[in-house]
Amino acid sequence: MARVTDEIASNTEAIHQAMPFAKKLGLELVAAGPDEVRCRLNWSDELSGAGVGMHGGAIMSLADAAGGLCAFLNLPDGASGTTTIESKTNFLRAVRSGAVEAVSRPLHKGRSVVVVETDVIDEAGRMAARVTQSQIVLRP
Length: 140
Fold this sequence. Notes:
Blueprint (H helix, E strand, L loop, with lengths): L5 H4 L2 H7 L1 H6 L2 E6 L2 E7 L13 H17 L8 E11 L7 E11 L3 E10 L4 E12 L2
Antiparallel strand pairs: 1-2, 2-4, 3-6, 4-5, 5-6
């Protein structure tokens, strides 16, 4: 992801420009700061998987986008960007309607790797998934 400015970190449209897949997915930015990023994804039939609920790939994509932004907002000086190098998802319940919100928080802010944990919460406040990802720090 290109270097995100303060404007991008507070504006859904700017996130869509910096990360076009987020627009395709329908991601909405709720809040963004170095300590926490919140993104929302509304239910739609296009995001369902075999009639069992929101597709796991949609949930993982939401978490990856939120976690990537969180990692980006925690880059060390001199870094130019970040990209996911590892991601682990535990699915805990199906999401069959409404929306989910990804809440990303940094676990480790290193010189070469940033590790982020993201909880995906349904509208009833129940955890639908937990994602831990490692983001490599890119340098010019």
